[in-house]
Amino acid sequence: MDTNEFFAPFRATADDGNSADAAVADNVGVENGEPAATTAQAPAKITANALGKTTSTATKQDGGKADRTPVWIDLLSPTPDEIHDIEERFGIEVPTREEMQEIELSSRLYDEEGALFMTVSVLTRATTDAPQTTAVTFILVKKTLITLRYADPVPFKTFIRRVKRSPSLANSAEAVLFGLLEQIVDRLADLMEQTATDLENLSNQVFASPEDIASDQDHRETLRQIGRTGNLSGKAKDSLLNLHRLGLFLSTQTRLKKDAKARLKVISRDIVSITEHANFIANKVTFLLDATLGMISLEQNNIIKIFSVAAAAFLPPTLIASIYGMNFEFMPELGWEFGYPVAIGLMILSAVLPLWYFKRKGWL
């Protein structure tokens, strides 16, 4: 259970006697009011990690205020006590994990007493054989963005690293919100590009010559890869649909400034373009699946054809052998001196002639 708080960096003036960089250095990398050196010794998973916590120097620069409002509070698998503290602190009702899974639009995007609640599906574990989507809730209340999630997708890890390197990325709640959305969209774009490359390799594998070493003879691995790619593209489209709806919801909010709306417009255009690419990938997945199943059907037909030719070729010899195996009392051929070799010759000839005919017709 992690609760990370991010504060906007200070902007030092000339009267402070310190540069803005020094102020930022005092403002970032402090855990629960302790120096940064203590934070460096903490384990990778930090509980109640208050990045950018106010130090004594920062308090002076902030006009002596003891507390500052964080621009971003990131709740990762929070405990009931942590959720209760957030609700008491901001006067909101945090949606439960079950409510986050609801698919109706009114339960995912709504305005409650000036606080914006936005739940989207974010792709996670995309590089594994079992990609998943996880619900992430963005709560924009006053000057703070609260994110509630029960998984740790790559975009959040990446954005947190970027904020630690460049604290100016978290100078406002809206900046953090759009930064996270851009990171999610960029991650989806990278996945779609990689998926397109994988599909190209699969296409070459499906249509490879049977003598080619790269061909998959039984197509089991090809079908598995096509299924994984189709699953990934489907979950990516679901995430893009959620992001598109979130963009439409934000575009109706008057609280956003002009530059924020311009940034939202760029994100929306990227979502539309990636969605078109995801549709192309879905169509190609369908095409490759049909082509693979067609190849399997052709190979099965070839096997059945061999058995059919063998049955047709050995039917006349079987008929001849059956006739002379009836053991009737009056069968003149049974007492003939050359009856046996003639019967053997007829059986061989009746088998060779159909095979020659099938070969001439190109059926073999």
TrEMBL record:
It catalyses: Mg(2+)(in) = Mg(2+)(out). It is found in: Cell inner membrane; Membrane. It holds the Pfam family CorA. The keyword DNA-binding does not apply. The keyword Transport applies. The chain crosses the membrane at residues 303-326, 338-358. Belongs to the CorA metal ion transporter (MIT) (TC 1.A.35) family. PANTHER family: MAGNESIUM TRANSPORT PROTEIN CORA. Mediates influx of magnesium ions. This is Magnesium transport protein CorA. It comes from Thalassospira povalilytica. The lineage of its organism: Bacteria, Pseudomonadati, Pseudomonadota, Alphaproteobacteria, Rhodospirillales. The gene is corA.
